Amino acid sequence: MPEGDDVHRVAGQLHHALAGRTLTRTDFRVPALANADLSGQAVGRVRARGKHILIETHAGQTVHTHLKMDGAWHVYREGEQWRSPGHRALILSVGDVTAVGFALGFVRLWPTADEPAHLGHLGPDVLGPDWDAVAAIRRLTEDPAREIGVAMIDQWVMAGPGNVYKSESLFLRGLHPKTLVGDVADPAALVGLVERLMKANRWGPRITTGDTRPGRRLWVYGRAGAPCRRCGTPVEQIAQGEEPADRVTYLCPSCQPSPGA
Questions:
Q1: What percent of the chain is predicted at pLDDT more than 70?
Q2: Active-site residue (options: 3, 56, 168, 195)
């Protein structure tokens, strides 16, 4: 699943392509919205809220999409060949420019004024104008009995971080992901590290090691079985939370000793 910085970049690309222009064609190829038509409405802005992409029109409508695991947005000029099949697509055209959302996790349409009802559960967005580190720390520490690796990517705690920033920041802080929140000595430092990493990588490529060479940019994420860059111990991969298939964490068992070790 994309991280919040990925989603903010996509939203920025869509805003550049669509904002201030009038929709000349819309095609919602999802059953629940098959009859929806926003043609004639001008796009006001496109923005990200955590991992959600919101396309707002001046007529007061919001197209709400989420990439989930397999979704993607592409922008095409007239005549360009699409890079994916369009049978599960959302198509938004403004004259000679077409934005196509492929295999999106979901597509919803609602009045812009109703945003609090749809996204009010999200915590402060690390990359958004509403970012509030104090609120994020308070939410993170509200349940001391949670595992820190689970709490960190709870979007109610803070919107945007996913498995990459969880794994990398826990490694850098020397914390095992199964450490209980109440046993984390400095949760403020952890939240501050997530903020710095995400803001530094907002426009990509994603680097946490300081080494820009391909294959050297991350400490542990995606490196199961490879030697830790610090101590040489093989990196491990574990699953956590209620959706373990989607909640993968990478760690060095030596640099991040298990609780009680």
A1: 98
A2: 3
Catalytic residue among 47, 49, 51, 139: 51
2 is catalytic: yes
Please indicate whether residue 129 is annotated as part of the active site.
no
**CATH classification for the domain delimited by 4-119, as one of 3.90.180.10, 2.40.50.100, 1.20.1070.10, 3.20.190.10:** 3.20.190.10
Q: What is the pLDDT of residue 260?
A: 74
Q: Domain ranges in the chain?
A: 4-119, 133-251
| Pairing of the two strands 89-94 and 25-28 | antiparallel
Partners of residue 92 on adjacent β-strands:
26, 99
As a whole number, mean pLDDT of residues 182-204 equals 95
Quote the pLDDT of residue 242. Answer: 73
| CATH code given to domain 133-251 | 1.10.8.50
Tokens of 9: 């970049």
In this prediction, what percent of the chain has a pLDDT beyond 90? 90
Contact 127, 160 (CB under 8 A): yes
